[in-house]
């Protein structure tokens, strides 16, 4: 298999920590990066997964609090009930 070299500037601590995790998983760091690039090509997406032990950022905490304050639209069993609710100027949101 032919290979190409990519030079990437990263923080030394990031490389050290990533190398340690890759080793613990039984992978070469280059193999993981190669797999990431293959996945990028296949899906045209970049995904990051957050785990339980990660703390949400202040921005995320604020966004979650704002979302909790948003009114919740009621659910309807049929279209007629939904239309009647929309036409009512005194309609209430569920909380």
Ordered list of secondary-structure elements with their pairings:
Blueprint: H1 12-25, H2 29-43, H3 58-69, H4 79-87
What is shown here, in short?
The protein is mostly helical.
Question: Could you characterize the architecture of this molecule?
Answer:
This protein has 95 residues and is mainly alpha-helical. It is 53% helix and 0% strand. The chain contains four helices and no strands.
What structural class do helix, strand and pairing data support?
A: mainly alpha
User: What's the tally of helices?
Assistant: 4
Described by the principal axes of the CA atoms, the overall outline is elongated
In percent, how helical is the residue content?
40-55%
Count of individual domains? 1
Query: How many extended strands?
Result: 0
% residues in beta strands: under 5%
User: First CA to last CA: what distance?
Assistant: 60 Å
Uncertain regions: pLDDT < 50 for 5+ in a row? none
Radius of gyration: 24 Å
Mean pLDDT: 83
Largest sheet: none
The string of secondary-structure elements, in order, is: HHHH
Protein name: Type II toxin-antitoxin system antitoxin, RelB/DinJ family
InterPro entries: Arc_rbn_hlx_hlx, RelB/DinJ
Keywords:
mainly alpha; Arc_rbn_hlx_hlx; elongated; 95 residues
């Amino acid at each position: 298999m032919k290979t190409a070299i990519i030079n990437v500037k990263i923080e030394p601590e990031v490389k050290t920590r990533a190398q340690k995790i890759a080793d613990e998983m039984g992978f070469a760091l280059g193999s993981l990066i190669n797999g990431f690039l293959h996945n990028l090509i296949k899906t045209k997406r970049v995904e990051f997964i957050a785990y339980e032990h990660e703390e949400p950022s202040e921005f995320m905490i604020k966004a979650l609090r704002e979302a909790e304050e948003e009114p919740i639209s009621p659910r309807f069993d049929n279209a007629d009930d939904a239309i009647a609710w929309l036409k009512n100027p005194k309609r209430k949101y569920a909380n």
